[in-house]
Amino acid sequence: MCGRMAVTLPHDAMAQIFAAAPANALPKVPNYNVCPTTDVHIVTSGSDGHRRLGAMRWGFIPVWYKKPSGGPLLINARAETIAEKPAFRAAARERRGLIICSGFYEWTKDAEGGRDPWYITRRDTSPLAFAAVWQDWKTPEGDLIPTCAVVTTGANAPMQDIHHRMPVIVEKDDWPLWLGEQGKGAATLMQPAKDDLLQWHRVDRAVNSNRASGPELIEPF
């Protein structure tokens, strides 16, 4: 599962780290509470092998939806079924990207059922690159809206204390394979992260609201 993110990296740093040409219009940073249906930063690779840093709606819209809310909100795509699901199977073969964030949130429940948020980052403080699939959805007026979903898999052993699933995190050496720059075999990357890759800490329940904002959202509670 991945339902909320934080992005603190400047656009020029993203472009440099991922060797991608930035689009003119990118989501504002920093954003400590990136929510579904808003735009996220995503790297894609064209047929010429050149990478692009762009913006896409977080919430994959299949081509048969008559409107963005024409079916379930698809913010995640399960690695175990992505190759067979009608919504995702073509994108899994042909339209893969890397969603960039600084960290993401997951929740546990206390004894009273309250939701306690946790902020999760890489131990080495590098940006996270989530495996993603994307789809241009055509509006009834003929406009194209680029949309995407995070690919998820079963959680590694440490993460299971928080949630039973986690985003597929693609390491730098594997970016070309996931982006389709090195032929076939990307499916082998859809695995849980190594047990020592991530770290996390409790944060205030303020982030439970999708309207919350500010750097205090990621501070230890």
Short description:
The chain is mainly beta. 8% of the residues lie in helices and 36% in strands.
Structure description:
This protein has helices spanning 11-17, 89-94, 175-178; strands at residues 5-7, 20-22, 31-34, 39-45, 51-58, 76-78, 96-101, 103-109, 115-122, 128-138, 144-154, 165-167, 198-202. With 221 residues, the chain is mainly β. A hairpin with a 5-residue loop joins strand 10 and strand 11.
Give the DSSP E fraction (strand runs of 2 or more residues).
35-45%
> Number of DSSP strands?
13
Structural class: mainly beta
- Contiguous low-pLDDT stretches (5 residues minimum) are none
Proportion in helices:
under 10%
Distance between the termini: 22 Å
- H-E string: EHEEEEEHEEEEEEHE
Query: Helical segment tally?
Result: 3
Gross morphology: globular
The averaged pLDDT comes out at 97
Task: Please compute the radius of gyration using only Cα atoms.
Answer: 17 Å
Largest sheet: 5 strands, antiparallel
- Going across the biggest sheet, name each strand in turn: 3-1-8-9-13
SSE order and pairing:
Layout: E1 5-7, H1 11-17, E2 20-22, E3 31-34, E4 39-45, E5 51-58, E6 76-78, H2 89-94, E7 96-101, E8 103-109, E9 115-122, E10 128-138, E11 144-154, E12 165-167, H3 175-178, E13 198-202
Parallel strand pairs: 2-5, 5-11, 6-11
Antiparallel strand pairs: 1-3, 1-8, 4-5, 4-7, 7-10, 8-9, 9-13, 10-11, 11-12
What keyword list fits this structure?
221 residues; mainly beta; 3 helices; 36% strand
